[in-house]
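Aim 2 progress update. The chain analyzed this quarter is reproduced below.
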Amino acid sequence: MHPILGHGRRLALYLGIWALVGLQLCAILVAQAGLDPPEALLAGLPPAAVYAFVCLSAWYVSRALPLAATGAARMLGTAFGAAALSSLVWLFVTRVWIDALAVRGLVRSAGGEARGLQILIFGFGVLLYLLSIAISYLLAIVEERREAERRALLVEVSAREAELRALRAQIDPHFLFNSLQSISALTAADPAGARRMCLMLAEFLRESLALGGEARIPIDRELRLVERFLAIEQVRFGERLRVEIAAQGADGLLVPPLLLQPIVENAVTHGIAHVIEGGAVRIAASSAAGRLTLVVENPCDADRPRGRGAGVGLANVRARLDALHGPDAWMHAVEQDGRWRVELSMPAEEGA
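Predicted structure tokens:
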């Protein structure tokens, strides 16, 4: 179906434009045939309405002869041929209509001006049809560009989704490796704690695997996962590891699953583990001005050995934010006064 015929507003706009064309035909009838304005309106507007629908065929001509695959000679020949044929149809309809009105005495006959009037109407019709073809080609170009942009966007989205899947695939083994190291450290010193930690780890893995392919989860669910992980680590660190979690005004907002996991792992592995007296891992979630802010703080030892694990975990988080939100999201990590602070900021997304 023609794109104009399938949309009421487009059809109304199209017919409105052709009403102006009909007024031009009426002006020709007044000037060339000597009709009064009321007679010209009666004689000119109905044929113009008919030709409006005839010119819709220009869209099919442009689709049958795309610019990229059609030679100039063939395209011009077809365009002028279709324009001449369509204009002859319009001339015939106009002539029959005016003659019918003249027979009934509704308008005066064109008389001796008939031949010159017919040539003028025919030429006018050819120009209108050629203009319709030109507009159809222009719309085709716009449509092709939009389709190309849509395909490019789909490719970009697919690439981002593939990148996110790869990043998430990196998180799970990394976390499991760290957890198994923690269990291994307990097997000799605290076998009962190691067993308890294995059970808690199994529950945590069951819950994290239940996320499946979810792209977003509520922030409270993400915080519960973090709290469960820290409870596992508390088996090893005991009172050295304290947990403080606060969420203000962030209820119902969505985040990528396991977004905080690498940051919290770093807080324990590269922070608490190197501070003799331990300390608190503080996690805060807040929302303001359409943005969600997540902050993770932990004590750290300035003289601790520098490993590569923290850099990999933070790089994964930064890459996920970039893939999801581009420049609209950011992550800042800074060490100051014996504390390590990671702040994430992203557009606030509300759940359904």
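The CA atoms of residues 270 and 307 lie 8 Å apart. The first helix runs from residue 8 to 33. These observations will guide the mutagenesis experiments scheduled for the next reporting period.
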